[in-house]
Design a protein that fits this description.
This protein is 27% helix and 27% strand. The protein is an alpha+beta fold. The strands form three sheets. Strands 4-11-8-9-10 form a five-stranded antiparallel beta sheet, with no helix packed on it. Strands 1, 5, 6 and 7 form a four-stranded mixed beta sheet that branches.
């Protein structure tokens, strides 16, 4: 199934393509050729390289994504086609087909005074765990993640690595 990623948040590049590739390269050095192939296809289609390719070394890997899934479409074992610009003439698959390794339930609850609680599979995350979750999801901090989801949120963590919380 197609998993769509935006390329900007708040009018700023999010570097999700580069962060996802950084995570994939950490899984297997055999993906070097695949990385090059997808990057070349991107240049051919858009006449430019990925946004943050010149300083990827400073980016943290993105190894999962948080999504609403009210119809329970996502299941472990499903194929993932990671795309940008889904359902447009510019749609582009930027990584090889992957598999959804696991799914965890995530809840973000506003608890007043701009405080939030975040739980994964019913377990409330402490500050360190929340920061790790935010970085692993492609955000720079827990504050950035909470600002993006602003308010109460129920959804799923889709994992394409063995990482779990």
């Amino acid at each position: 199934m197609k998993l769509s990623f935006g390329t900007v948040i708040n009018d700023q590049p999010n570097y999700f393509i580069e962060k996802i590739w950084k995570g994939l390269m950490a899984l297997s050095s055999h993906l070097d050729n695949e990385h090059y192939r997808f990057q070349e296809r991107h240049i051919q289609k858009f006449d430019r390289n990925w946004d943050g390719d010149t300083y990827t070394e400073f980016l943290e890997p993105k190894i999962h994504t948080i999504r609403k899934d009210p119809d329970h479409q996502w299941q472990p074992g499903m194929e993932i086609a990671m795309v940008i610009y889904k359902d447009t003439s510019d749609e582009f698959q930027f990584a090889p087909m992957l598999h959804c390794i696991s799914i965890q339930k995530i809840e973000i609850r506003e608890s007043g005074n701009e405080n939030f609680t975040v739980s994964v599979d019913g377990n409330q995350l402490d500050e360190e765990q929340l920061n790790r979750l935010a970085i692993n999801d492609g955000f720079q901090s827990a504050e950035e993640l909470l600002s993006y989801f602003s308010g109460n949120f129920s959804g799923k963590l889709l994992h394409w690595t063995a990482m779990k919380y």
